[in-house]
C-alpha cells in the first residue's frame, strides 16, 4: 500500500522517519515523507508555556486527522499518555539504549568541577542533577542536538545531558563521556523508543505497520507510561520510569521529585501486567512523596 509519513524536520526526526520508511519499503510498501513544522519547533522558550512535549506533535496529529498523512513517527518520550480523539499508537519499535548521556569532553558526572555549568531544560534531568549534584549550575538549553553540542564546544557549558539513543542514531555516540546508570539516573518514560501513530479507524495502515511492533518493548513502555499517566505527568512533573523484563516479570524503577530536587522518592516494583504495575508503583511513590 501507499503510506504517507508525517514527521518533524529535525535531523533526529528525519533519521527516525527514514528508518521506518526503509523498513516499510523492505516489506513492499510505497512510502513518502512529509516534513511538518510544529509549535515546539517554532517556540524558543520553555515547553511548559506551549503545552509541554505535546507541542512537538500538535500539527502532525492535525495532519493525521485531516487525512493529509497516514502515519506519524515520534520519539515515544514526546507523546502524552492521552491522545486526541480518533488517534492511536499502532506500534512501538524495538527500543534503543534508554540511558541519558553526559557529554563533557572528559569528566564523568561525579567528577565535574564544583559549580560547573551544565546545560539542560528537562525538568526530570534538572531534578535528578539537583538531587545528585546540588552544587552544579544548571542552565536552560533548548535546541537540536547539533545546537546543544556546538554550545558545549563554544564553552557555554562544562557539560550537557542528552539521550544516548539520539546521539547514536545521529552517528555521534563517540561524543558520550558517560552513559548514566538508569538505576540512579532514571530515564524518561519511553526514552529510546520510536512509536507510530495512526488514525484509530485506519485498519489498513494499522495492519501494514503491525510487523514493526516489538512486544517486549511495548510491555516495558506500557508500564512506564502507566506510571506517568497515574501521576498526571508531562513536562511539568519531574519524574522518570524505566522497565525491563526479568526473571520475576517486569521490573519497574521510577522516581518523583520537586523541580528543585527536593522531596526525591525512588521506588521499584515487580509485576506481570504492565498497566497495573505502573499504577501501583505510582501510588506508592506518590504517597511517600506527599508524606515528606
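Q: What amino acid sequence fits the structure above?
A:
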Amino acid at each position: 500500500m501507499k503510506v504517507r509519513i508525517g514527521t518533524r524536520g529535525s535531523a533526529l526526526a528525519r533519521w527516525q522517519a527514514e528508518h521506518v520508511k526503509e523498513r516499510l519499503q523492505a516489506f513492499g510498501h510505497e512510502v513518502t515523507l512529509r516534513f511538518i513544522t510544529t509549535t515546539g519547533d517554532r517556540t524558543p522558550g520553555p515547553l511548559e508555556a506551549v503545552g509541554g512535549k505535546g507541542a512537538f506533535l500538535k500539527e502532525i496529529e492535525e495532519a493525521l486527522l485531516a487525512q493529509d498523512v497516514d502515519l506519524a513517527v515520534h520519539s515515544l518520550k514526546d507523546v502524552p499518555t492521552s491522545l486526541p480523539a480518533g488517534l492511536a499508537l499502532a506500534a512501538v519499535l524495538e527500543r534503543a539504549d534508554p540511558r541519558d548521556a553526559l557529554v563533557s569532553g572528559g569528566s564523568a558526572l561525579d567528577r565535574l568541577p564544583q559549580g560547573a555549568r551544565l546545560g539542560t531544560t528537562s525538568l526530570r534531568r534538572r531534578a535528578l542533577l539537583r538531587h545528585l549534584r546540588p552544587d552544579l549550575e544548571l542552565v536552560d538549553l533548548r535546541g537540536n542536538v547539533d545546537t546543544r553540542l556546538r554550545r558545549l564546544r563554544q564553552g557555554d557549558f562544562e557539560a550537557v545531558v542528552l539521550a544516548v539513543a539520539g546521539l547514536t542514531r545521529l552517528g555521534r555516540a563517540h561524543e558520550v563521556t558517560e552513559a548514566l546508570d538508569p538505576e540512579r539516573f532514571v530515564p524518561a518514560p519511553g526514552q529510546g523508543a520510536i512509536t507510530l501513530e495512526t488514525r484509530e479507524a485506519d485498519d489498513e495502515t494499522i495492519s501494514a505497520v503491525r510487523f514493526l511492533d516489538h512486544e517486549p518493548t511495548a510491555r516495558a513502555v506500557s508500564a512506564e507510561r502507566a506510571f506517568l499517566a497515574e501521576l498526571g505527568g508531562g513536562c511539568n512533573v519531574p519524574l522518570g520510569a524505566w522497565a525491563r523484563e526479568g526473571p520475576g516479570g517486569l521490573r519497574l524503577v521510577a522516581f518523583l521529585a520537586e523541580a528543585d530536587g527536593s522531596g526525591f522518592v525512588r521506588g521499584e516494583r515487580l509485576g506481570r501486567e504492565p498497566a497495573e504495575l505502573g499504577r501501583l508503583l505510582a501510588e506508592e511513590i506518590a504517597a511517600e512523596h506527599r508524606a515528606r
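Q: And what stands out in the fold?
A: The two ends are 55 Å apart (CA to CA).
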